[in-house]
Amino acid sequence: MDIEELLPQQPEGDKKNKKKESPLVSLEKDLDLYADSIREVAIDIIMEGISTHPIFIAHQHSVSIGEVILNREELNTNWTIQASTLEEFVEKGIINPEKKVLFLKSYKKTEDFMCVFVIVPEGANFIYYPYKNKRA
After folding, report:
1. Is 123 in contact with 117 (CB distance < 8 Å)?
2. Which of 33, 55, 97, 115 has the fewest other C-beta atoms within 10 Å?
């Protein structure tokens, strides 16, 4: 799933609200800024044998899963990022144990993508965001 799939769709006749930017646009900016730190934490999680499937939680409020690694208030950004694992998501019931195999089939290479569980007021969903250098 790409980040665009989480962006709210504007009704075709709704030209007035088109200027209102989705909070997920700011998420993309923050993920680009955070990418090196997130990649480093993902490698640490794998190398320390904690999990082979790190998951990062992006939110703008507080959540009770994972550990805060990038605090939006401290960094003056829009999104806080917490680090977690597939195992914690299964343990907390966010990923149904029966769906774990299906989730693993869609899980992308940790070297190339960060797995992000994005929480917004309308709900939550997984995205795979590529690590990239935006220095063009």
Report:
1. no
2. 97
Please compute, for residue 87, the number of CA atoms within 13 A of its CA located in the half-sphere on the CB side.
Answer: 7
CB 50 within 8 A of CB 85: yes
Distances (CA, A) of 42 to 36, 70, 82: 10, 13, 11
Q: Which of 116, 130, 113, 20 is nearest to 59 (CA)?
A: 116
Domain for residue 52, yes or no?
Answer: yes
Name the domain count of the chain.
Answer: 1
Phi, psi of 120 (to 5 degrees): -125, 165
Tell me the residue range of the domain where 81 lies.
Answer: 38-136
What does residue 101 show for φ and ψ, rounded to 5 degrees?
-65, -40
Each residue of 83-132: pLDDT tens digit?
999 999 999 999 999 999 999 999 999 999 999 999 998 889 999 999 97
Q: In this structure, what are the phi and psi dihedrals at residue 109, rounded to the nearest 5 degrees?
A: -55, 125
At 24 the pLDDT is 77
pLDDT at 17: 47
